[in-house]
Amino acid sequence: MDKLLIRGGRPLHGEVLISGAKNAALPELCAALLSAQPVTLHNVPRLQDVATMLKLIRNMGVTAERDDNGTVTLNAGALNNPEAPYELVKTMRASVLALGPLLARFGHAKVSLPGGCAIGSRPVDQHIKGLQAMGAVITVENGYMNASLPEGWKRLKGAHITTDMVTVTGTENFLMAAALAEGETVLENAAMEPEITDLAEMLIKMGARISGHGTSRITIEGVEALHGCEHAVVADRIEAGTFLCAVAATGGEAFLRHGRADHLSAVIDKLLEAGAQVQTEEGGIRVRSQGRLKAQSFRTTEYPGFPTDMQAQFMALNLVAEGPSMVTETIFENRFMHVNEMMRLGARITTDGRVATVEGGAPLSGATVMATDLRASASLVIAGLVAKGETLVDRIYHLDRGYDRMEAKLRGLGADIERVSQ
Ligand code: EPZ
C-alpha cells in the first residue's frame, strides 16, 4: 500500500497546472452513453475514479480510448449491457450516474446501490424519486436498482422534479435522463455547482435543449436522439482550492494555471480574510502568503457557498493560523474523520456533532497518519507540509481517487514529498 513521506517546513513557490475536474469528468463520461455517435472529452484528469468509470462503461460495451494528454474518445454505439455491477460500483459511488443515461436511451438499466462511504450513508432515494416522476419503474432488490419503463412506453416523460435537498449527482442524473425524455422537465432546487453547468454545456453540444443551468431552476426540453460532440472538462475548483490552502498554510507564492477564481469565491473570500493575497491573473490564480494567517470560521453549504469538499483542507490551514475557529459541516453527517489524525500531529480540535472547534497556532510535529477519505487525505498532506519533521500519510489510495499526481505537483512547488511503497 503506497504512502506519502513528507518533510514539512518548506514554503511553496512556482507554478502548478490545475487538471480537469473529477466531478465534471465522471458525469460527462456517463453523458456519452446517451448517444450512438462518438464523443471526445479533453482535459480528462488522470485519476483512479476516472479509470474505474472507464472500466464500468467498457464493461457495458462502450469503446473508450485514452491518449497521453488527457483526451478520451468514447463510442457507445454498440453498448449492449446496460448494467453497473456491484464490484465496480462499491468502489465509486458516482457509478449511480449511469442510471439516468441508460434508462433514457435503452429504457432499462440495472445499477448496483452504491452503499455508504466514509463520510456518510450517501443514499440515492432522491435519484429514484426523480426518475420515478419521469415514469421510471424502479425496484430495489439484492442490492440492485432495476429500472425500466411502463408497458408500452418508448421513452421517459418530462416531469416537474423538486428534490427534498440539493443533490449534485441527483441533478446530473435528471439532466441526462430529461435530455431524451418526451416533453419538458423542470428541476426545482437544482444543484448550481460549476460541474452541473459544464455537464449541461456538453449536453447542449450533443443537441440537448437546456436552460437555467447554474441556477436552482433548470428546464430541459427532451429530444429524440443526441449526436456526438467534442468537449473540454472544466478545471477542478477543488484541486485549485486545495493548492490555494497548501500555499497559504506553508507560506510562499504560486500561480495556479487554469485555476478558475470565479468558481472559488467563497474559499477565496476566507483566504483574503485570513490575510493571504489571492488574485486572478491571465490564465489562472496567483496566491501569496507569509504563512502567519488569522484562522477563519466557516460553514459548508451548497454552491456558491463554502464547498464541503474544501472543509478538511481549510481546517488544515486553520491549524497553523492564529486564533480559534469554528468549522460547521452542514452537508454530510460524518465528515470530520481527519480531526483525529490531525490531533496526532499536535492539533488541538474538539468536535460536537457537525461543529469542530479548532485552536489555532498549535506547533505541529510530524507523525504517521491515516487517510480515511479523499479530501481528508488532502488535508493531512497540507498539515504534513507545515508540520516539523517527517509525516507519513498512509492509505493514500484515497488521494489517488481524486487528485492527479498530487505529490509530483507539490514537488514541482518545492515541497519535500515522495511516494513510498510498502
Ligand atoms: C457530489 O456527491 C460530489 N461527488 C461530492 O464530492 C460532493 O461532496 C457532494 O456532491 C456535495 O457537494 C461527485 O460529484 C461525484 P449530494 P453527491 O447528492 O452527489 C444527501 C468529492 O470529494 N442525499 O449533493 O453524492 C446526501 O447524503 C466528493 O469529490 C440524499 O439524502 O452528493 C448528502 O447529505 C465527496 N439522498 C446531501 O444530500 C439522495 O438521493 C448532498 O449530497 C442524494 C443525496
Q: What key attributes describe this structure?
A:
single chain; 422 residues; alpha/beta; UDP-n-acetylglucosamine1-carboxyvinyl-transferase, Chain; 2 domains; 4-stranded mixed sheet; 24 strands; 32% helix; binds ligand EPZ
Mean pLDDT over all positions: 96
Name the hetero compounds present: ligand EPZ
CATH class wording of the largest domain:
Alpha Beta
Radius of gyration, rounded? 21 Å
Could you name the CATH homologous superfamily of the largest domain? Answer: Enolpyruvate transferase domain
Give me the number of helical elements: 14
CATH architecture classification name of the largest domain: Alpha-beta prism
Roughly what fraction of the amino acids lie in strands? Answer: 25-35%
Could you list the spans in which at least 5 consecutive residues all have pLDDT below 50? Answer: none
Number of strands: 24
Globally, the shape reads elongated
The main sheet comes to: 4 strands, mixed
Helix content: 25-40%
Intertermini distance:
5 Å
Overall domain count = 2
Structural class: alpha/beta
Output the strand order for the largest sheet: 22-23-1-24
At the fold tier of CATH, the topology name of the largest domain is: UDP-n-acetylglucosamine1-carboxyvinyl-transferase, Chain
